[in-house]
Amino acid sequence: MQDFQRYGFNDPTSSEANTTRGGLRQMSFSDEGQSTDPSIDRQGQRLAFSSNRHGSTHDLYVRMIDGGTITRVTTNPGEDVMPAFSPDGSVLAFASDRAGNFDIWTVAINGGAPTRLTSDSAHEYHPAFSPDGRRLAYCRTNPRTERNEIWYIDLNQPMRRVFVEYGTMPEWSPDPAESVLVFQQARERGRRSYALWTVRINDQSIGRPQEIISAANAAAINPTWSPDAEHIAFATVTEGRDGHETMDLWTIKRNGTKLRHLTADAAEEYQPCWSVDGCIYFVSTRSGNSNIWSVADGATARPDNEAARLVGAEGTP
Question: pTM higher than 0.85, yes or no?
Fold first, then answer.
């Protein structure tokens, strides 16, 4: 594991960082409201997202990657957010406060009423299916301690709930041969910024967490796996010299090497989601409102100068 904590990320407001790189494609066009929370099905054919384009609260929408009409999956006065495709693409898990506080729900894309999976007093959010569809990981904010926790549900035994680790935003490795979550976890000292970790889950035990990357001057958030489970894309929240926070996208190998700067411009860019077609889908404010965009990783990802120099200094080219 390469430790970047003592290095920090480049200041996005300096030198050549204020550039817009090529290979971009806009996927949603909310000129009123916003579109966020992109999720791509395992086949790389459909995009799900949440949007308040038609009202004051968010609903779930699905569209084909190559264009065409947009299907509105939910219509509810509550907030429906954070959709996640099931492995076969027929179901969306999502978070909703329609029952009073945020719980985990599922809904069939082709119709039918949503099903509620959690129902306690805690806020539960950010569901993620395991690649075999057996388990559903999610975040829970403990109402007593106010700490963020990661749990999973055994979908074959819905009453079986397993605590995994403290943290938030879990994403299951797409490799069916392993059972590994990547997630973000806040430090318990200093600026309490987020770092990225992985943890292995066995049927009878939880492994020891491994830190992938952290930084002294940035929070690493929103991790997502590459289709081959060898890389992780994520966003950083970095405070610039003028005090303004900037959000950029990066990729890194799961062993903590090969840090690459994916986007670097004045817009806020976050919530990456990696598709089997090699594109990374993400939220950007570059159009004025928050919308879904995609970028071909091979077309734009190149080593950030400072990150590349530091990696080379540690002997990992």
Answer: yes
